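Pyruvate dehydrogenase E1 component subunit beta
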Amino acid sequence: MLSRAFRVPLRQNVTPFTKIVNPRLCLQKQPFRGAATETKEVNITVREALNQALDEELARDPSVFVMGEEVARYNGAYKVSKGLYDKYGDKRIIDTPITEMGFTGLGVGAALAGTRPVIEFMTFNFAMQGIDHIVNSAAKLRYMSGGKINVPIVFRGPNGPPTSVGAQHSQDFAAWLASVPGLKVVVPWNCDDAKGLLKAAIRDDNPVCVLESELGYNETYALSPEAQDADFTIPIGVAKIEREGGDVTLISYGRQVGNCLKVAETLSSQGIDVEVINLRSIRPLDVNTIITSVRKTGRAVTVEEGWPQHGVGAEIIAQINEHAFDYMDAPVERVAGCDVPMPYTKVLEDVAMIHPDNILRAVQKVANRGK
């Protein structure tokens, strides 16, 4: 454990955090409903967890339908919708032409008409073709109608860099989309996240972007007993502390949460006790969990696959500066993808992407400041 002798003295008039932050941002954790009591954990892939979520919500609510390129007869480009066409038919699982602008607009119209569309993008890079419908229609209509019109639609698909697909297919849009009032943005990491967040998104009366990882679809994790219940959801806007620690707070989302946990275990042998926060939700952001953690540890590192400028980490640092500046023993470090279009050649791509060593060195840097 690091010494706390170098703690910056606190101002006597610092207001407790719960009174500083807008209460709308401080969503309280809710108990999971219908938790199984005797069910054992099962190991499945993230792809299978997403498939379970879609299957259960299609069965529960006849107003839910899935639409996108190759989602039906082909079982999905990444097989997330595998088996759903055979089970629910062509009125619930709908193949579209290669026209994101068209089927995104159709989905928003269907949501306004009382259904709950799940729009799959083969990649969120292609969602840019339909961005006007997402940002100027789905995100705005509830506000512009004075709350009279709901837009219960989900936009989902792979986001962030895979490998060797070039600059136009390797982008993380979490910061872009989370900057838009009216949208909710969630990013799952493991199977519980994938299932619970997608089910919550489908049930939400607001437009929700579910940003998945192409590289994470095949990852296998234990699905908890609670998550095996058909009524399991994860509240949107609530982060999870995946590992408790007292020296440094490591904050991330999506696939990089797994790398953060590996780094935390490595650093424990060096006497650095790392707390790992899985954000789960980028908008709304669980500021309360972040600030409570960094007030305890006095040091923080943010990790994201997107570009550093105007990124998710930049927003987190701004919140820390506003609400925990007097508690910090070192400047916050950011780990992000390189500030360049993603190279296609493998050698340069490896340099541009995040690796566990990048995270490890950033944590060591903040842990050693002020010693």
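thats it. DSSP finds 13 helices and 14 strands in the chain. Residues 46-60 form the longest helix (15 residues). bye
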